[in-house]
Here is the input.
Amino acid sequence: MGEIRLVRIGGKRCVRPLLVFVFFSVAGCASQTTISKPRPQGIYHVVTPGETLFRIGKAYGLTYQELARVNGIKDAGQIRVGQRIFIPGATRPLPVETITPAEPAPAAPVLPEPGFETFLWPVNGTINSGFGPRGSSFHDGIDIAAPEGTPILAIEAGEVIYSDQLRGYGNMVIVRHAGGIVSVYAHNEANLVREGQTVARGEVVARVGSTGRVSGPHLHFEIRRNNTAEDPLRYLPQLCCVTASDNVSPKN
Ligand SMILES: [Zn+2]
Here is the structure.
């Protein structure tokens, strides 16, 4: 935002912020010959914890779709604390209500903090070991058995922060997502992404394998929130055809 672009209208150049161009394209500068910086017709709202685009929009009398469009936000759920959101037409910052019990459900997912059932399953397969105590140790994730070579999908958009081998885990990919969430994909036959690469939700990051300390091909999958392993089943959509409890045997 605030990006200055040169646009050529009627053979004359004029400068105006892209934002103003998008929103106030009627207020043209085609006949102007002088270059001046237009005043922004709005303010920046800085996102604080608990706020969503939906609620910010509500505070300023705008829809979250408008805010997403004017700010170039593709995924309304991906705003983060500290982010500056341009509010067209606003003259001063307004408080944003973060707890509204009677709030109607928004039409689109609004998830500044990833909630339940927001992620994709990384592979289709059978869970043959669940999260929790396992013998004398603790299983930090779930094991999903699937044929060697099955594509492993990024559960959500993010940045690859690890793609290498690790003792015991074999080939492993770690992706960092919004909201302090990290997803871990291990025992891969091959990693298909590099560190530093951004991945889209559903992008293939690796293929199922049996590298590391395993007895057969499967994906060892973890979700860590603020560096603590949590039960991935709490974050994944419910299985369609078999209940998780039928399928999970934590003592495996
Ligand atoms: Zn495992």
